[in-house]
Design brief:
The chain is 25% helix and 37% strand. With 175 residues, the chain is of the alpha+beta class. The protein binds zinc ion.
Amino acid sequence: MGRFDKYNIDLKGLKAEPLNLEFILDDAFFGDIEGEEFRRGKVKAVVTAKKNRDVFDIAFSLSGIVIVPCNRCLDDLELEIETTNSLRVRLGDDFADDGDIVVVPEHDGDINIAWYLYEFIALAMPMRRVHAPGKCNKAMTGKLRKHLLGEYDDEQPEMDPRWEVLKNIQIEEDN
Ligand SMILES: [Zn+2]
């Protein structure tokens, strides 16, 4: 049995009754699928496949979290995922996916939804991938700024000794 076999939907075998499936997608799944956007997380997927004449409608409901590196401090950041998607599929000669409808070869008669599950989650990820204010790993942020961006820490730079002298003069004049 292949790693993604359980994500196979036998379209030809679909009866009048909708097919309901439920998966928990975890680190092992996301690791195996080797996507670019993220490799870890825990997402519950509820999938319903229905046959409407010659077209199969597959509905996806996905909720959970994925873990990505924070863009600011590189520590783990949990992103909440909550999304619904659908896929229209029909049987045909050769595999095709033009965005509106997926064609799967008639002689196979099934579709593997593993990659779609990953892709729908990736599409639902928020663009902003940083910790809430003050929640970043401070040690890491400081180091990254210095080494990668050449910026200084948040602390005030020490006063230039020449200005220190001027300040004293000012005080003396006031007296
Ligand atoms: Zn952070």
